[in-house]
Each structure stands twice: as structure tokens, then as C-alpha cells.
Amino acid sequence: MAEIEIPRSGESDESRDRFNNLIAIAVAIVSAFMAVSKIKDDNIVQQMQKAQAESVDYWNEYQARRQRQFGTELAIAQTRATSPSTPELEAKLEEWKKQADYYKSRADESSVKAKARTADYDAGNDRDDLFDLSDAFLSVAIALFAVTALVRVRWLFGAASALAAAGMIFGVAGFNGWTWIKPAFLVTFLS
Length: 191
Prior knowledge:
Elements: H1 13-82, H2 87-151, H3 154-176, H4 184-190
Helix pairs in contact: 1-2, 1-3, 2-3
């Protein structure tokens, strides 16, 4: 059976090949950038998980130490209310007071550590949002590059390239921690 050749509308084979090569190069660059960004994004997520787990641990330490402090202070108050004051008892109560103060200082340390780890988590989350935006823009760009290869519309290649550039900007911002570039309205919309 003989093949039927469909005539092309005004586009030379050389021009078609150049355009296809341009699309292929753009897809390769975007894909490579996405792969490297994904590794960094995964590492940031792991750091966020660690920070969150440590924050919970420090808050648990804080609560345990505060309970010890309150228990010791309650014991001091109950003992003062129910027992006559003697030098031996006052010495014991002073020792308990030192323990209560120690528990309070350790609880305060745990609170400071927990707040620091929460701040680390929040900073990581801001960077993760940038990588999420980058991934979204780059994924849409690759889809548009595929459609461009099929329909051969040059303005669509420009739109895909613009989305790819936006995705790369967000990715570079994520790598560098430039959280000021994060569009809050878009992150809120997508959250």
C-alpha cells in the first residue's frame, strides 16, 4: 500500500527541525532543573520534619519540668500549711525551693529551644513553598512544551518559556532562601 504524504503548510523541514530541537532543549533544561530542585526540596522537608519532632520533644520536656516545678511548689505550700515550722523543716523546704527553681530554669531552657526549632520549621516551610511553586510552574511549562511540539504554535512556545522562567526563578529563590520573593496570595490560594 502506498503512503500518502500530507503537504506541509509553508514550513521547511529545516525550520521544523530547528523548532523541534529548541523544544527538546527547553524540556531537557527544565527537567534537569526540576530534578535538582526536587533533591533540595526533599532535603528541606526532612529538615522540617526533624525540626518539628525536636520542637515537640522540647515542649514535652517543658511540660514535664513545669509539672515537677508545680508539684514541688505545691508540696512546699502544703507542708507549710500543715506542719509546724522547725529549723529542720525550713532547711528541707529551702532544698525543695531550690529544686523548684531548678525545674523552672530547665523548663525555660526547653521553651527557648522549642521556639527556636519552631522558627527553623517555619523558615524551612517558606523555602519549601518556593520549591512547590517552582515545581508547579515547571510542570505546566513542560506540558505546554509538549502541546507546542504537536500544534507548532510559536506563541505557545513563548508562554511555556515564560512559565519555565518563572519556575526557575522560584527554584533559585528556594535554593538561596529568598523568601521575600514568595507571592503570599498564590501560596494561600494553593494551600
